[in-house]
Amino acid sequence: MLALSLSSVGRSLTGINIAGSSNAETAPPANPGMYQLDITLKRGHNLAIRDRGGTSDPYVKFKIAGKEVFRSRTINKNLNPVWDERVSLLVDSLREPLYVKVFDYDFGLQDDFMGSAYLYLESLEHQRTLDVTLDLEDPQYPEHNLGTLELAVTLSPKEGDFREAQQHSSMRLSDVHRKAQLWRGIVSISLIEAHDLQPMDANGFSDPYVKFRLGHQKYKSKTIPKTLNPQWREQFDFHLYEEQGGFIDITVWDKDAGKKDDFMGRCSIDLSPLSKEHTHKFDLPLEEGEGMLVLLVTLTGAAAVSISDLSVNILDDTHERHQIRQRYSVLRSFHNLKDVGVVQVKVIRSEGLMAADVTGKSDPFCVVELSNDRLQTHTVYKNLNPEWNKVFTFNVKDIHSVLEVTVYDEDRDRSADFLGKVAIPLLNIQNGERKAYALKSKELTGPTKGVIFLEIDVIFNAVKAGLMTLIPKEQKYIEDEPRVSKQLLLQNFNRVRRCILFLINAGCYINSCFEWDSTQRSICSFLVFVLVVWNFELYMIPLVLLLPLAWNYILISSGKDTRQDFQAMEDLLENEDEDYDKDDKVPRPGPSEDRRLPESHILEDMLASWHFEWIRVMLDPERKGFINKLYAIQDVCISVQNALDEVASYGERIKNTFNWTVPFLSWLAIVALCVATVLIYYIPLRYIVLAWGVNKFSKKLRDPYTIDNNELLDFLSRVPSDVQVVQYRELKVDPSHSPNKRKKNNPG
């Protein structure tokens, strides 16, 4: 290989080393109409560390004139990745350099910048393969060494009409971007238990939890306090992107309040030798620690997930649509219970987006999420009215899932900026209707600028959907860490207070019957009491629960809305958004302060005292020994905050079941109560209790690794709380944003 002097090409290049494959030089044509740039992305060396484990998940982007023209696949957990990917680009000018950027992929989070470099096309010799080494730099920290990339580059002048070639290249790049997002299978993992773990605390026990990682996907289990033989009984799924499998990295940690968690050991599972559609049991000894971890792993085929252009989608084909309806017909209700249905999302366009760049434009792209399934569109550069025209197809495992569509602005060398978001429960979707949805804030409590046009179709099996309602809800991999929030704590406090006031009012109403405050009401209550007690049978209990469901259904059918409380919740959220700063959680001064309840004053004073105590300790070096105690106070605050939310949510969910907030769930409750009434009426109670007890005692013997669940709590987890109802409510859209009218694009 012959090293070329950079001065011979008439330009000084920093951080680029070039070697040619021959001594021959070919003079370029005088005015070529187009250039073909052939690039082989070979490998990277000593790339930057961006993950906690001391590694990164790097991928590379190529940009020309601000537009992304190539994106490589992601190499997991490697600082010296080997790509060996080839791409052919057509460029019409050599004045724009090739901008190369490296990122660390983080699932569900913003990808971390790992360095960038420029390749100046004017410096390249024509029709000659050159080996190029790019030194990666961070423009904000140029002194940092971020490693190098190795490329092989060939620039060839072309002439003639290249529109067809450009179209072919664009289609190929779109296909590469599409395939990079699609998974080839599902890895179902059941975390059962652990034995004989190492004691990490002074009391001779530990508070263990487990972290899992497969490529960019991560999962964290719940913490089991004060035990060396924890029982988790948790199940979750990972997506399998590589044909040859991959490695699941597992670490066990001891939870410590106020300080860094203690490492207790690690292990891993190689998925490549595992057979599909079969459950594999693993007893994994922990390396660098003590004890054994018990897991169940099952590999299944790819789910119905796809990305296509608007002109190509399965549900628009009459024959394909009929086949899908047959697949989810009532006759196939007990075949593959986890395959509940399919949802197709057409992301058409957006209008009136927020300008996130200094130029008054944005570079928007759209992310579509359904539970832990996540796909995204391409980026439309310098446009506030982008058109994507993409179709996403997802497999539905839980009909109560919420479809989240988020619009971001792509930024060079920075995390993407949030532009807006909508959340749409699958059961609220009207099939085949193209609608304009007003974008909301991150918290989904208020509007932001812009609308997005979507057309969604859902096909599902109602029997499967009902049965899957009674199993544990799938947890999201990526969830925000809980933090103390004065706004959230006051909100949860007021929600619990409303539930308690409802019970107090109900008790007062019953007591008024005994006090004869209303003669007519007391006489009716007495007659009902005598009739019920004299004729009471156990089957009447579920029968009585049917009465409020029937009554509310009649009221709603007659046009009387029994759900005014949601407006109160919406006003509460809006007032708190106005009174409190979302970032530092400090109350804003305003006239609303004088109207707060005495209970809120007490809670605020308590939080303020903790806040000032924290500042005083942090500023006093002699008292930093109390920091651990303050961390413990913070943990208590988070526990109280979460407990209030859980109590309030269950109260609101019970209410929303009876007032038909989600008709599917209310009908399911009616079916369950009718079945319970019939069973109790015809089968003696002792037989029912005996069957229940035998099932409970024999469950562990029949399946030692079964995951216990409570069907009633699983049902209630699908009913939205009042906060979720407000978050999922659609905002009114300006009539000027019509699905059939398009605003003129405004590219810069």
TrEMBL record:
GO terms for biological process: regulation of neurotransmitter secretion. It holds the Pfam family C2. Its main location: membrane. One of its GO terms (cellular component) is synaptic vesicle membrane. Coiled coil: none annotated. Residues 18-134, 167-286, 320-439 form the C2 domain. One of its GO terms (molecular function) is calcium ion binding. The chain crosses the membrane at residues 526-554, 662-683. It is found in: Membrane. Keywords: Calcium, Membrane, Metal-binding, Repeat, Transmembrane, Transmembrane helix. CDD domains: C2A_MCTP_PRT, C2B_MCTP_PRT, C2C_MCTP_PRT. It is a multi-pass membrane protein. The keyword Membrane applies. PROSITE patterns: C2 (PS50004). Belongs to the MCTP family. This is C2 domain-containing protein. It comes from Oncorhynchus tshawytscha.
